[in-house]
């Protein structure tokens, strides 16, 4: 059993004199959760306990520790994979997941993005150039007001018009009324333009409501779905993405996940959280905060995310990097230089600021992107 | 609409000259996600946007900012409540959720712990004194070996014998075989002792598997369930806890949640994550890393968790603080001084170290706790 192993590189804050012991402690913590002297000899000690593959100093007092785990220890489940990757060790200070190498036998257990970058282009009818997304907001508007926004934006050529992630089932815009109105509005615009603009319904919700909302959204004509893995768990996204009776592009929102990346000595590297894990979860477009906006992500961190979304990953399709948050026409050149064309730009508030005529504002954005 | 508001106190790293602008930025980010000048006048600007209730300096360059949000903005859902509490702001450096005050009209939307501290005591038949929990490990053992451990531990008087959180559905101990064997072993011990020891099955799993595993565990005789909200989402726990056809005590494991607490200037205060959110999710016993063990939590942080588990919270029952991780007989006195009797001690590896005769080891622990 288990010739192939999952390799995880952790950044560990510890002096050279302690790093061997820290590495072993993580290898035990993430698997058998026992002191070494109590680990049964044979298969468990030799195979189940994490192997220390490599240790190197990265900076004074900071080491890179590569451990490997049996593929079978993940039990074929994304939930248990997260456990194995960083379950208990997430609770210890000075440990960060920097990189993950997944063998083919592990990757084959996942379908990955159903559409991916290329499939999304086909679905949207946009073979080249950057894709464009915006968000319906603010919370507090009625379904009719949100639908009118959606219509204007679709008329202006935006590819994906999504619910703001805070639009759920509030009394002033109940889920079904909102989704039905917005889906119909985008389809009406499509009949006028001949384009294939997509309304993406936010279906993030209670465990017991979620599948009902997914089915309703599909029947009402929403042609993509938005889910927040921080709120519902990564495997919930995988289940929805993998379901052939749904078969809609899946957008992932970073809400409530920030604590996993903002401290440089804890959590996960940006590319692991917003790239690799999203692809395992079957996400077609991974939304994350862009550099230079109102979030603190650096350009390097954002490039790491884009690379992790697009890099080869066995049989799994690439997913579309979708930077957003404080995007403006004035930082478009910097974004183009960073991301090139294999990207979906998410402009929310910045688009509303361009003009109160949203169709006009959308055309202005597309023109600036060379998409008009 | 909405005379009652949810109050959230954030710790914000910012100088006094910027704190008013930062507070407003969070109030906008967590609700309408628009620059202030674009927010529609009237209900949205006056009620939906977070109100700045209070700002005070806590230390040079660190402020406490209390904002309030409409109860209706949470849309009656735990997922959307997390969004409102700390969705996008989690992605900005220097913001931490320190405290949450929930009005009665919000709390009434949640059932909370089905058993709670007192109900758990009744269920276990232990009216006074600390409760005791242990974990079946290591990963890699067969169902038969785990069941034999469970039998020995139950014979020795342990109240709750749970799966280690890494035991899921690995090929060497498939879920159904393990759960059936362990549940039967604990019941066999109960027939001999006349006690009510409980086997808690780890049902953390794929979205599509989870309810099947819950039903199987109940039918096989597991009398409690273990779930990791970091892996499956807090609302999944609430759904299982609230289900009258399940009606088993629910234990919560902190796996993969550490990034939410380990950085003092990001994430959530310990009591919010391991106390308040757990009670909203209907958790009966909240497991968290104890001070003085192999995790870095301080005694003060652990006391904050225990208080948040037990303090009055409108109609919601208290949940049982369950510290574990590196617990030994040698630190028992310090734990007793910290927690008193309203606690469940989780001793895993430490118990296995006491003796290879697990029944004897269990008796030794209970005796040290004054429970023999």
TrEMBL record, chains A, B:
<dbReference type="InterPro" id="IPR033966">
    <property type="entry name" value="RuBisCO"/>
</dbReference>
<feature type="domain" description="Ribulose bisphosphate carboxylase large subunit C-terminal">
    <location>
        <begin position="117"/>
        <end position="351"/>
    </location>
</feature>
<dbReference type="InterPro" id="IPR036376">
    <property type="entry name" value="RuBisCO_lsu_C_sf"/>
</dbReference>
<dbReference type="InterPro" id="IPR000685">
    <property type="entry name" value="RuBisCO_lsu_C"/>
</dbReference>
<dbReference type="Pfam" id="PF00016">
    <property type="entry name" value="RuBisCO_large"/>
</dbReference>
<dbReference type="InterPro" id="IPR036422">
    <property type="entry name" value="RuBisCO_lsu_N_sf"/>
</dbReference>
<protein>
    <submittedName>
        <fullName>Ribulose 1,5-bisphosphate carboxylase large subunit</fullName>
    </submittedName>
</protein>
